[in-house]
Amino acid sequence: MSSGIALGLHGGCGTLEHRLQSQADWSESRDHLAQALRAGWQILRSGGSALDAVQATVVVMEDSPHFNAGYGAALTARAEHELDASIMDGSNLAAGAVCMVRRVRNPVQAARALLDSGTALLLAGDAADAFAAQAGLTMVDPSYFTTQRRLDALRLLQQRAQTGAFVPATEAEKHGTVGAVARDAQGHLAAATSTGGFNNTPPGRVGDSPIIGAGTYARDGVCAVSCTGQGEIFIRRVAAYDVAARIQYAGQSLEQATRTLVFETLASHKIGAGMVALGATGNPVAPYNTLGMYRGWVTTDGQLAVATHQEIHRMGAA
Amino acid sequence: MSSGIALGLHGGCGTLEHRLQSQADWSESRDHLAQALRAGWQILRSGGSALDAVQATVVVMEDSPHFNAGYGAALTARAEHELDASIMDGSNLAAGAVCMVRRVRNPVQAARALLDSGTALLLAGDAADAFAAQAGLTMVDPSYFTTQRRLDALRLLQQRAQTGAFVPATEAEKHGTVGAVARDAQGHLAAATSTGGFNNTPPGRVGDSPIIGAGTYARDGVCAVSCTGQGEIFIRRVAAYDVAARIQYAGQSLEQATRTLVFETLASHKIGAGMVALGATGNPVAPYNTLGMYRGWVTTDGQLAVATHQEIHRMGAA
Lengths: 318, 318
Description:
Two copies of one chain form a homodimer. Chain A is α+β, with helices and mostly antiparallel strands. The first copy, chain A, is 34% helix and 25% strand.
């Protein structure tokens, strides 16, 4: 398609061992990735903005129990939810972000409402929920976000800690974040990221997902990026913006820049890391250095594909 | 001095109109800048680390009523304090940050304790205060931070808003942040930033000061940077890390990179902006695009200088 619209997403990277869930669950998680892509693609195809597209894509993943954001989010050490999200408009570098929200059903919508408000860029905690309520967003009881799977995983982690048995948490238990990048028919770029943190996280801990430049970045003509992995390292490496800086200042390609980050810079800290990214032209890239990463894209020819591990599931026209 | 140790600080930029305070107050604020520099310089001169030096420098400014951080911090629209701080070690890119703390006397010490803990990088709200208390830091009643000057300024702002009179807040009322950069005898760089936000700020709003890459950044061999100005724009521009990226990837000098940010990139958003920065060699730079900026430095020859407006007050050997 000459318009060059494109869309990419990730649903978190990690070891994602096949045995951890049923084939039906793996299949459903791929279906939800495809639904998320179709929600965003529908907007792009009808001439909508990249900003609206990444928001719609992330909302579908927030509403799915398969991903660690919104419904089905991870739990803190106090068995509570603290959700973070951010969104950035590459056309004017406007951005919005929330951290430690507990009551807005879709944190990415709160981030978007903040972007639109043009007031604060980042709101934390109760104030962010109050803002979301005032903006007319759907509010829920914090118990809405809790799934049995996350409760079980938290109990297992805490039992291990009590018995003193050193059994490292799997990457899937530790992390998980969702994100999307899009390019619209006007060539504008946007990125969004949303997360529930990680299971058994210290209350009050904020990772890279709500941090513009670390977990999320978008600038027209350069790139749109959304990251997943241990947030502290992404913040220290200013990972999302470093992709842009390598392209803008060092003349690297999107592929070079993202692969350098994932396989060298971030990997040097011995962490699992992944990202989905999109340039001024061309198709999304989604490098990761773990066994798997929930990911998917619609290429400029309108073809949709999703994957959790090496195998790419091509689903035809979006 | 062949060791090349150097130290720089800022205490916020803005219009800083002379008539807003007495000559005695201006003089005392310069004395406090000099005290802050001497605290950091003492550490550097005795072979201490850049990280310890920036922390000690910021602590003195947090304890001074003249600057918007710690004691004398700005008040939110609810007449409460929400303090943010961050610190970064350029030798290993370790960092710590807190936002929305209300009870730790010196937020930069809480940020440093987090850096040392190696657990979370960024903690928010009550959890950050609880961490600080557990780390043995001095805790205070929130009223400790409140000065009559900030209460008066808040009342004035809120009265204006009620009467509907459009009288824009002065830059001094709106912003203010303190920060420091240092290079130690081993050539390591560090940066730290601390703020009380701005007067009449929406509760829950977090600016760039606790955001690594936006308000604070340090990397050995490249630069150390601490910023002051409207945080939302610094976040959108990933300002502190953009200085580093311009040096690393585009081959710019520290002077070029910081002047581009302050006079072009940030100024294009029509905001007051300033920063203090230090490179792998040479003396600190402290560009700002407002009428004044509280600032000071000790150059590699051990000479101390402070300033609030154009005039530089040279104070001799540090």
